[in-house]
Amino acid sequence: MELSVDRDNAYGRLDKFLRKQLKSVPLSEIYKLLRTGKIVVNGKIIRDPAYELEPGDSVRIDDDLSRYSRQTVSVRPVPLKLDIIYEDEDMLALNKKAGIALHPGDKTRGTTLIHGLMFYGRQKGFTPHLVHRLDRDTSGVLLVAKNNRSARILSHMFRERLLDKEYIALVAGRLHGHGRIELPIDGQEAVSEYEVLEKFEQATLVRVILHTGRTHQIRRHFAALGNPVVGDTIYGNRNVNHQFREAYGLRRQFLHCIRISFMHPSKPERITLKAPLPKDLEEVLERLRT
Description:
2 domains; S4_RNA-bd_sf; 23S rRNA pseudouridine(955/2504/2580) synthase activity; EC 5.4.99.-; Structural Genomics Hypothetical 15.5 Kd Protein In mrcA-pckA Intergenic Region, Chain A; RNA binding; Pseudouridine synthase; 14 strands; alpha+beta; four-stranded antiparallel beta sheet
């Protein structure tokens, strides 16, 4: 059994990662696997429970855990239509559609994006590594590393803010010109910049540049301003969401990653990946304009 480490499940210590991933396996058995050399990280047997994992690592378990009735660890490959906008030997980029989660979780059932990526990777001979994330109902550019080296480099770029990330969002109320939002999230620095693209009677279309990558950063920052992302069911305005659903057919949060720009992990060149605004969001804008 092989598990991939990405930004969302890199819990630091190896034993913590295993406990999270092997929820049906007794803790005593997990430490036995470590003691007996059944845990292999990047091709090397690791016995130290405190071994620090990083995004891009591959963890292999050389044991049959099927004796435990409730398996939560395996991600079986499932055919899934992927909108691939770029691919080379190191990475691929998807135009992720809204409504699909990246990977299984306690509240996620059914096929996720990683299921489809595992299927595609098996066909092409690579193991996919998610190096950043987009929320279930956020669409747009999503990067996927195809090997450990690229995963480490791309994860480092995201962590050290070495990429340009641009989003398009429709927020409730009126904003003017441009602005910078510096509001910590969960005790960590979080910085977003925005520029107004178009104004409507009850909402404003903005371009957002992320300087940090905190969880739900855009959604939380604009909610704190009093201008939540339209359609956001967690931080948004229920009345506004209802109105846009009924009048304009908006059935998810209006948030789309339109561009990511960065240095290629293996070549001395800068690469810019773009995903056009999807049809459902364009239709909302067209209705607002008329």
